[in-house]
Amino acid sequence: MIKSLSGRFLVLTTVFVMLAEVLIFVPSVARFREDYLRLRLERAQIASLALLADDMIDRELEKELLTNAGVYNVVLRRDEISQLILSSQIPAPIHATFDLRDPTAWELIRHAIERLIDTEERVVRVIGEPVREGGLLIEVAMPTMDLRDEMIAYGIRILFLSALISIVTATLLFLAARRFIVTPIKGVVRAMQRYADAPEDNRRIIEPKASVTELREAEEALQSLQSQLTTALRQKERLAQLGGAVAKISHDLRNILTSAQLFTDRIETSEDPLVTRMAPKLVNSITRAVSLCESTLAFGRAEEPPPTLDRLAINRIVEDVIDSERLAAGDYPLEIADEVPAGLVVRADGEQLFRVVSNLVRNARQAIMATGDPGRICVSAWEDDTAWWIEITDTGPGLPPKAQEYLFQPFQGGARKGGSGLGLAIAAELIRGHGGTLELSRTGDEGTSFKICLPKGDAMSLLAAG
User: What value, to the nearest 5°, has the Cα angle with vertex 42 and ends 36 and 45?
Assistant: First the structure.
């Protein structure tokens, strides 16, 4: 009960209402004390009227009047003359004097607290203004124990009433919170649990019904999320099925294309002018098809093998990549710059890092050559205290919007027209295997830049220890 939202709401409401009542308890008791003293002054003034009407009253009547007023004596000032109207024996010296003609709130509160704390019987003098213009001033001497008992009784009544109010208020708020907040939340939780049992079933998507604005917005957000997740799960299932079929087809197709590639190698030696002109195009087409099949099969594996980390000079890998791409570019006006420091040593898997850098440089070369304009590719590298960095920049046309939206996602749009997106997806996976990241720094009309981060972490100390 206490651990539930409604239970805690009930307890907190009760505590806060009681706290509020406690904060007003002391001012209430102080006000009660002031009213009590003023009432004694008023009774004392009424008792004094008997003597003013008849100058001669016996001692028994005077004592009865003082007892009924709850005071020991009464002093009334009229026409600048103070008169002891009624009097009796005072059992103790005057302990304190309280002037009720113009008291401050702080004085009333302080005197009330002192009265509650003091358990001794005292005699105090109280001064006030007579009612109905009955004089200039009235003064009485009175005991304090009755006053303290009345203040305690009043305080108990206030606390009891406060507890009753807090319980009733908390109960009403508890019922309201349970009706308008807790019950709808439980409905959302049940809908989430029901959906989790079969997320592919559209019938289990929540239908917004809450009347509270915030809960309604939460239900609508959950409905949108569940709808997107159901659609994504169905798409993933279809892609998984399609992927299995494509992997089988790619395996067989690769074998067929490999055989065709052997025949095209022989065709290239033909002296027929038409064959000589068409053979290179045929070879390139078959080569691209074989590459696509190999990439598809590589991506279709459960995962890439873990990298075999070793110290290696990054400039050797970059030089091999650049040499290959320069041969592929042939006479095309393309500059491929190597700005990697000769002594820079990284800790990585050489084969996997070559595949990543090669893929990025090849994509840049193909993008530039597709424009027909001269271009430049630059490979640079550096290190700081935490990581090694490799950056590949080009002056190509930039990535198309679809490639930017689905970057590093296979079969969702490649970096170039007709691409599958497998190269970047595999490259990102290889870098993640090193504990690093591959990210797109910028792209646009002025070119594209990819950045590889290989963190040092604890790997350096482990290597040194080995």
Answer: 145
**pLDDT, tens only, 41-90:** 888 887 777 666 555 566 677 777 778 888 888 887 766 665 656 677 78
Residues 84-126: pLDDT tens digits? 566 777 888 888 999 988 888 888 988 988 988 988 888 999 9
Strand partners, 86: 74
What the block records as the tokens of 64 is 């009865």
- Listed by start position, the domains of the chain span 5-168, 213-300, 310-465
Question: What is the residue whose two structure tokens read 């008992």?
Answer: 149
Instruction: For 270-285, write each residue's pLDDT tens digit.
Output: 667 776 666 666 666 6
Q: What is the DSSP string of 382-422?
A: EE-SSEEEEEEEE-S----HHHHHTTT-TTS--SSTT--SH
C-alpha–C-alpha distance, residues 267 and 285, integer Å: 14
Q: With b meaning 16 or more CB within 10 Å and e meaning fewer, what string describes 189-202?
A: eebeeebeeeeeee
Tokens of 62: 């005077």
Mean per-residue pLDDT over the chain, rounded: 79
- In this structure, whether the domain defined by 213-300 belongs to CATH 1.10.287 is answered with yes
Which pTM was predicted?
0.42
Q: Are 420 and 411 in contact (CB under 8 A)?
A: yes
In 291-373, DSSP assigns E strands to: 310-313, 334-339, 345-348
Both tokens assigned to 40: 């004694």
- Type of residue numbered 221: A
What would be the CATH architecture of the domain defined by 310-465?
A: 2-Layer Sandwich (3.30)
Q: Which of 187, 179, 183 is nearest to 223 (CA)?
A: 187
